[in-house]
């Protein structure tokens, strides 16, 4: 039984012969007969034929053409006959002499070109196999949300004022979250881990659902399904940072002080992701923190004028797009007065 390499060489020779011109019904019958001999023949031929069609006619390399010049289909095998001979004249001379010395030289050229094709296709397949196959960047404006389907079947929901760089390769699916927050619904692929990096930290998963939020040097991870791994680079003094495993329901906050993890029901973790539906949720939250959260989604900013106001506690679900309604509720329920200054709303104690 022929090896896969030998089968590919024969398939490449058939492709070179077909492209050389003068392809007859008898040639097609012989090719069909070879293809019918084994499924391996069909697979090799179809794979090389697809690469042939998609590679900008790689046969130009085997024809000795000037770099950058792609010849018309059928002309590459005749280039060595000289510029004064047309493909038709070459075929007229070559076809009757398949058993002669001229025919032998022609087949040598064809096999040399086929070998070149096989080599270049192998290199092309190797590059496709090991290098990045898809890279793109995405960003949202303040108040904007974007759902991004990825080529691997995963989906990313990018929050307001966020930016990320996506690189999908053979060995890894990598997201560089450069700003803001994103929710990831990851398609399972054990051979390609899904890595979200934020500076010196990485969140790694295989197939799960989680969100990553970047606040300057701090990081927040919310897991709603599956298991993710949180890693950090070693400290500047070389001290190794521990790895943290986060199951569903985990809310992890990483800062210079370390990693703090809270675990609870998945429903509670989901409340941190209500921004996907246009809401923000607060539970006994300092007003200064609530105002900063509103400011993430609006160009009109809430400014805390007095420290005592910022320390007041608030709770409830609010539409993050409706800053005015939130401020009215504060003025009605708390000893707060508001002051409008263009796109700024200042909150002071009254």
TrEMBL record:
Name of the featured protein: Two-component system sensor protein
Originating organism: Rhodanobacter spathiphylli B39
Extent of Basic and acidic residues compositional bias: 80-100
Residue intervals of the FecR protein domain: 137-229
Extent of the signal sequence: none
Spans annotated as Disordered: 74-100
InterPro entries: FecR, FecR_N, Ferrdict_sens_TM
An annotated Gene Ontology molecular function: sigma factor antagonist activity
One Pfam family cited in the UniProt record for this chain: FecR
PANTHER family: PERIPLASMIC SIGNAL SENSOR AND SIGMA FACTOR ACTIVATOR FECR-RELATED (PTHR30273), PROTEIN FECR (PTHR30273:SF2)
Domain FecR N-terminal: 11-48
Transmembrane segments: 107-127
Keywords: Membrane, Transmembrane, Transmembrane helix
